[in-house]
Every structure is written in structure tokens, then in C-alpha cells.
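[SOLVED] Predicted holo structure with zinc ion

Edit: marking solved, answer below. Original request kept for reference. I posted the sequence and ligand SMILES and asked for the 3D complex as C-alpha cells.
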Amino acid sequence: MARKRWRACPECDLVVALPALRAGHSASCPRCRRELTYRARMPAERVLAYASAAIVMLLLTLPYPFLTFSLGGMQENIILLDTVTALRQSDWPLLGLLIAMSIIVLPGMYLLAVAYVYGSVASRHYWPGSVWLARAISHIKPWLMTDVFLVGVLISLVKLLTLADIGFGWSFWAFCGYVVLMAKTVSNVDSDWLWFALQDEPAPPTGTQLGEEAWSQHLVGCNICGLLNRPEDIHCRRCARKIRIPGSHSVERTVALLVTAAILYVPANVYIMMSTITVGGVVESTIMGGVVQMLEMGSYLVAAVIFFASIVIPVLKIVVLGWLCYVVRYGQPMSMQRRARWYRVTEFIGRWSMIDVFVVAIMVALIQAGVILSISPGPAAAAFAAVVILTMLAAMSFDPKALWQPARVNTQAQEWIDEKH
Ligand SMILES: [Zn+2]
Ligand SMILES: [Zn+2]
């Protein structure tokens, strides 16, 4: 089965031939070192097993107590969905929706789609809708945040230990299992293998040359299944995804998202993130105030995590992405490899900024015991969540290929777009 499996590297756009891989091996781009594909042992069965187990764990996290909270002889059991209902009741329905989407709805949809598509592949029968769902898997993946939520839970516990006794319920342990199985599922889903199994491998367009950029040969690599297409095909020949022309207006869109994020970053830091009402009075804290509070309590690790996640990461991301946009437009004497490395940093760290929003949500839910103590989110929580989402969208809309061939890609992209219209 010697087929030409040629790909354009999604990061630097070099056209490379994928070798036949043995189980446990991966292939990387020879120029920018980005991993292109990974071959697991018995991929279909393995992913199906992990995804099904993760679905069972997700279901187990729902009915049982997640945490127990005792204060002054009163004990309260909190189930996972209480974090969502508590936010809805305290007039923050959007934050509640955000939590529900990022820890239950999107991961649940992802797991069901993965189980269905890999079931279809493992049974060697084509089940209807598999192609559509396989595309959905790629779209949902960047928004999975179960691991970030778990770290948020641990931080909230440290914050609350001074106020009350906290215990773990069954559902908490199921959630830990869910996070691990989810990570296993995600790391074993390889879109290259999946699309080959679902739709085989159409030959690359005639005249394709290895070792040159796809763009310079009038080719575009599909950003879902990786297949090489001609831009005039409009839709990918294998997965039918609309072909996204690299570099087209990506810089303008990224800059617009970054500017909005930077503006919202101001209220996120100036306004109250969380207010705690105790018998002693009301304590209102901003993001930085929360860090100082943790330092005063001697929880240096938590203070450091919140400081990095909420202050350093968003600023770093806005500055680095903004600077990369500048580089693409005006050029800079810096090696391509180093630019690509900076881009990967922003891509990797993005989701972790969400920790502080999760911390507030969990604390609000935990303190619904409410008589002696109550906690509610402040306007900064909404502004900050928006900053995180906007910077994630900015990183997604930025096209790293432009870093490897700044001037040419952009002018050529514009010419092609002009031709099309
Ligand atoms: Zn590459
Ligand atoms: Zn495709």
C-alpha cells in the first residue's frame, strides 16, 4: 500500500512526504520540527476504549457529591453542577454557561464524537455522519479545559482552608479519572490516521514538489485533514472543509482581537474579581489583591500560580502575538526558528489563564451554604473571561506560515483573493 502521503507542514508550509510509521513512532517536519503525525498501537480500539471510559467517568461525576464543606457544625455537599447553578442564581448566567460548556458540554460532545467516529472505523462500516463528526473533533479540541478546571479546584481549596473544612466526595475522584482519560483520548486521536482510515488518501495534485513551500506551488494544506489541495478547489477533496487561504487578512483579524483583549484587560484588573461577605464584614479583592492575600496567608505556590495565570500569561500573550503580527508586516532580523518557537509558546499557554475564573466559580458554588459566609463574583470575572477567550481566538486566527515567508505569502494571498472575486 505505497501511497504518496504528502503534506504541507501546518506551521511552516514545507511540503514533505510522510514515511510509513510503525506503532509508537511519530513524524516531524524536518525544518520547523513540528510533529506532523503520531501512530499509536491499535489506534481505533485504543481511542475507543479511552473515550468510552472517559464518558463513563463524566457521567459518574454528575450525581455524587463533588466536595463537602463544613462550617460551624453545618455540612454541605456540593455536586459539580452546583458551580453552574450557583453562578446563574448570583446573576452571572454567562459565567455559569462558560463553566458548563468548558467542563461538561464541549468535552462530552468531543468524547461522544470521538467514540462514534472511531467506532465507525473499528467496525469497518461507514456510519452516517462520521465525516461531519470527524471535522467537529478538530474544531472542539482547542476548547477542552477539564485539566485547567481541576487545577482551579485545588487552588480554591487552598484559599478556603482558612475559612472551613473541605472534604472530597466520590465525584471529585471520578473527575480526576475523567481528566486523565480525557487527556489520554486527546493525545491518541491523530487526525492524519483518522482521515486515512475514514476516506483513504487521494493523490497529491500533479506537479507537486517535495521540499518547497506549498504556497509557492499554488497549493494549500487542509487545516483539518492535512491533504494538499489547489486553492480553486474551494473545498478540501477529502474532508470537504472549506479551504482557508493562509495569510489572508489573518494579521488584521489577530490585531483586532488583541486590541479588544487589551482594552478589556483594564477593567479585568481594576474592578472587583470576587467579594467575600463574612461576619467580620465585606472583603473585596481584585486579581492582584487576591495574589497579595495569598502571599499574606503564606500560600506562596497558589500566589505564584494565580500571578502567572492571571497577570503574566495574558500580558505575555498579547505582547508576543502583537509583536509577531508586527514582524509579519514589517520584518525583523530574527531567525525563523526563533519566531516559530515564540508562536508555540503563545499557543500552548493560552488556556491556563482561565484558572482564576474557574477559582471564582468554584468558590461561589462552595459557599452557597451562605448564612455565615457568602462569596460572589465581581465584574472583573466576566471581563477577564472575555480576555482569555479573545486571546485564544487571536492565537487561532494568527497564521504561523506567514512567519516563514512574510512578504511573499501576504502579497500572494492578496493577489489570489483579488483574483477570486
Ligand atoms: Zn514545518
Ligand atoms: Zn481536508
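OP edit: The chain has a mean pLDDT of 85. Thanks to everyone who chimed in.
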